[in-house]
Design brief:
345 residues, mainly alpha, Serine Threonine Protein Phosphatase 5, Tetratricopeptide repeat, 3 domains, two-stranded antiparallel ribbon, 20 helices, globular
């Protein structure tokens, strides 16, 4: 690519140019996803420019992907001391502490972000989610959502959170009202692209036991999910999304195939961030299609694994498992109760 070529030319002319090592490292990180080689370039750049927060944040991000969460946290905390008012560092500290289920620390950093950006909708929503993961209470999230002015709904993201909070509370009428109040055909909910509103409508029906009604909505959403996976066949998240839809449709074999394909494409051994997320999808798929003996060992491991936390329905924390309707098919199994008896994480 042009960026890579420019970085390589710059390094030939000035081998000790920190910015060129940084640029080359970013190409290797984002395009090749070769974390070791990217880290080599970032380490050189950091030695040449030790006070550069951008370099330090990238080093920490790679440590996360390598599963070195404690090292990543230390690096982000070091950068925060050098530049305490940088919102990028604060956001990374929120993500990292949340992923590690360090709820008090995550809450402290999210409050700092709100102090820096009082009008930020994202900061408000993050505050509410941390409270939910930590204490199992949606009250703060609801009160903060009520502060968002009507009509403010970037990419349908506020609507999807209103829907989700109602679903967590099993208030299906409120979930329906949230969707009906939006004119958007697609809403921001999962990674890689928007989710069609028919998926949310189908979920409301399915949660209430209206399987036939749910299928009509899911059938409407299916081409969007299938086309997304076809357009990017090497995208683990798109295969995981498709498997998730198939699981809700009761298409067991298709759901498991797509879920396992996602895990093959993004194994945790190569990416401890996205790799964990696709395993969360797989656990939910197993739970929905009746593969309890596969779901429980995976859930038990994910509850102890950093990164299995997200503001969507495949998130694996004690309070997600307690409150989310998606886990109802395995809720009555004694093994589920045993999972919930672990210390809240």
């Amino acid at each position: 690519t042009k960026a890579r070529t420019e970085a390589q030319i710059a390094l030939r002319l000035q081998p000790n140019l920190a910015e060129a090592h940084l640029a080359l490292g970013q190409c290797i990180y984002w395009m090749d996803q070769d974390y070791e080689r990217a880290l080599e370039q970032f380490d050189i750049a950091a030695r040449l420019s030790p006070s550069n927060g951008d370099i330090a944040r990238l080093i920490a991000a790679i440590k996360r992907r390598q599963g070195k969460w404690e090292d990543a946290l230390e690096e982000y905390e070091r950068v925060a001391k050098l530049d305490p008012q940088n919102p990028n560092t604060v956001r990374e500290l929120i993500f990292t502490n949340t992923a590690m289920r360090r709820w008090p620390e995550a809450a402290r950093w999210v409050e700092q972000l709100r102090a820096m950006a009082p009008a930020s909708i994202v900061a408000k929503i993050q505050t509410g989610y941390v409270e939910f993961w930590w204490k199992g209470d949606t009250g703060l999230l609801k009160s903060l959502l009520n502060q968002v002015p009507p009509g403010v709904d970037p990419d349908g993201g506020v609507t999807s959170v209103r829907w989700e909070v109602a679903m967590l509370d099993r208030d299906y009428a409120a979930a329906r009202r949230a969707i009906d109040a939006s004119t958007a055909k697609e809403l921001s909910y999962t990674g890689e692209g928007s989710t069609p509103r028919s998926f949310f409508e189908g979920s409301i029906a399915l949660a209430q036991g209206d399987i036939a009604g749910a299928q009509k909505y899911f059938e409407d959403a299916r081409p969007v999910f299938e086309n997304a996976a076809k357009e990017a066949p090497l995208s683990a998240v798109r295969h995981a999304n498709l498997g998730w839809l198939y699981a809700f449709m009761g298409r067991k074999e298709d759901a498991i195939r797509e879920g396992r394909r996602a895990v093959e494409l993004k194994p945790e051994s190569k990416d401890a961030v996205d790799g964990v997320i696709v395993n969360c999808y797989l656990a939910l798929i197993y739970a929905r299609v009746g593969e309890k003996d596969l779901a429980f060992p995976l859930l038990e491991r994910l509850l102890k694994t950093p990164g299995a936390v997200d503001s969507v329905d495949y998130s694996v924390t004690i309070n997600d498992l307690k409150h989310r309707w998606e886990w109802d098919p395995i809720r009555s199994d004694p093994r589920f109760q045993k999972l919930l008896e672990q210390p809240a994480k």
